[in-house]
Amino acid sequence: MVGDTFARPLLADHGAALGITVTTVQPEPGTKGFVPVPKRWVAEQTFGTTMLHRRLARDYEKLPASSEAHLYWAATDRMTRRLTGTTTRWRDTTPPDEVLAVGAAA
After folding, report:
1. 71, exposed or middle or buried, with CB in 10 Å at 0-12, 13-18, 19+?
2. What pTM did the predictor assign?
3. How far apart are the first and last CA of the chain?
């Protein structure tokens, strides 16, 4: 599925040579600006969440089996977060007064 920007005969011919059906999505008449297509949004969201795993963004030096294992790991992480309702924390949310000083007794 491609947007109307990529609707070129060369792209459809290349997809057909690979056995891929290329579908062009046209915007609704009178629509202004960007409107996400539901199916395409799911695919883009999947790529975005996969790229949260930094190994997958820099995976050009490994075997295909390693890449596959990392993708399974990323998918498992995403499913686990969706099932448990937890989110990724990018920073520690512990209040400063609860953080122990280095060398302090607990």
Report:
1. middle
2. 0.43
3. 57
For 16-53, the pLDDT digits (tens) are: 888 988 777 777 788 887 777 666 666 777 777 777 77
Please answer whether residues 16 and 23 qualify as being in contact, where contact means their C-beta atoms are separated by less than 8 angstroms.
Answer: no
**Residue 40: which of 57, 54, 23 has the closest Cα?**
23
Here the tokens at position 31 are: 């629509």
Query: pLDDT confidence of 57, banded at 50, 70, 90?
Result: low
Say whether 25 sits in a helix, a strand or coil: strand
CA angle 42, 46, 50 (to 5 degrees): 170
Residue with tokens 């099932």: 83
For residue 52, what are the CA distances in angstroms to 38, 56, 58, 101?
21, 8, 11, 32
